[in-house]
Amino acid sequence: MAHRSPGAAHAALTLVTAALLLTGTPVAAAAGHTAPSGGPAAGARGADEPSPALLKALERDLRLTPQQARRRLSNEADAGARAGHLQLALGKTFAGAWVRGDDSARLTVATTDAADAPAIEAAGADAEVVRFGLAALRDAAAKLDRAATGTQALDTPVRYVDVRRNRVTVQASASSAAEALIAAAGVDRALVNVALSPERPRALYDLVGGDAFYIGQGRCSVGFSVTKGQEQGFATAGHCGQAGATTTGFNMAAQGTFQASTFPGQDTAWVKTGTDWTATPQVRGAGGENVQVAGSTQAMVGAAVCRSGSTTGWHCGEIEQHDTSVTYPQGTINGVTRTTVCAEPGDSGGSFISGSQAQGVTSGGSGDCTSGGTTYYQPVNPLLEKYGLVLKTTAQDTTTPGSETDQGSWTPGHVYRTGDEVTYGGVTYHCVQTHQAQGAARPTDAPALWERA
């Protein structure tokens, strides 16, 4: 993302505030503001129509009232769009954003420049002035990842950018292991927080995630239905099977074949299914009810997220950090998301969903669903991009990723990240939130995902 001068950034922030008002996204008072309550156009599609199963799980696991659960999903969808607009305006001074409160009523946007604070607050967010920008933290995390090699990496198994702390956290079994990694990486010690924990993450083999599927004697979970041209299948975790491995479904009927699989490094895979199987935009929820998938807009740190697994069913929690690196005994996985959701072996590959937006497939973790634990998921957007897949959604578009359209450079099926630039109908737009483009969410119709340049 190009750096903007302070004057340009402050002018852009003023325009962002005006744009939020024009697009119908509510802007709350700077002090003591309450949660946004905009309509579906303000946030991710489907946030206004949460499934009963999802709401029940949020109420149970996050101890929310029905009203709080509904407000939380709506608030998080609106906050994601608001934070994305502010990130584009701030440029290099942006240092992260997160939501907080039982119903995510507060959005905080961090900046390294105190002069940004009034405009951030005018846009309906709390401003927090910090020392390090997000780019600097990500660079430090990348250096730590490169230095975490061999069996020693098992002593520092988790590394992530913690935007709420404005540090890179190294989770280690002993202080000496963390300090040795920091020294080997050549990272400024001021950038790093050390958290001591006996946690030993592992890949969750032999269990489920939406519906069960089987690979020989092993069992994993279906993540999300996908298409590739005329082919149908599903996304799941790479550690569940290698390319060429055959699968049977929950009913033990012949199902499909792994087309590609990556593990470690990432934890991605997809299975092409036979003609007896039909891809649907659904995830199995509590009590057998299905949750509809409307898109793949990435949820924020602090947002509620739920997981579907055939072993433990529906469980919910919060997103703690994106861009986490985890070292399992089999190797290191980069770019996963750390959550407070519990999971157990067999939940691997299953669906993580926030509201109606697909987030990722279950990778591994520690703990269980009796005492609680930490679970990591492989984000779905990089998986879709890696294999050229299109997520099956309630507003399905059949365009193959990368195909030409007559609407400028914007392409359905392509994964866009915050700050990406496209043209559509002769107008230039910037991406506000990371997502896979769907035909029903064109730049002209999705202010939560796109803003005019």
Structural commentary:
By secondary structure, this protein is of the alpha+beta class. It folds into four domains: 124 residues, GMP Synthetase, Chain A, domain 3, CATH 3.30.300.50; 63 residues, GMP Synthetase, Chain A, domain 3 (2-Layer Sandwich), CATH 3.30.300; 195 residues, Thrombin, subunit H, CATH 2.40.10; 57 residues, Seminal Fluid Protein  PDC-109 (Domain B). Helices cover 20% and strands 33% of the residues. The protein has a six-stranded antiparallel beta barrel with strand order 17-18-19-22-21-20. Strands 12-13-14-11-10-23 form a six-stranded antiparallel sheet. Strands 1-2-3 form a three-stranded mixed sheet. β18 and β19 form a beta hairpin. α1 runs antiparallel to α3, α2 packs across α3 and α5 packs across α6. The longest helix is centred in the first third of the chain and has 25 residues. The chain is globular, with a radius of gyration of 21 Å.
What is this entry, summarized?
The chain is an alpha+beta fold and 453 residues long. Helix content is 20%, strand content 33%. The strands form seven sheets. A six-stranded antiparallel barrel has the order 17-18-19-22-21-20. A six-stranded antiparallel sheet has the order 12-13-14-11-10-23.
Q: Report the C-alpha radius of gyration, rounded.
A: 21 Å
User: What is the mean pLDDT?
Assistant: 87
In which order are the strands of the major sheet placed?
Answer: 17-18-19-22-21-20
Find the CATH superfamily of the largest domain. Trypsin-like serine proteases
Specify the CATH class of the largest domain.
Answer: Mainly Beta
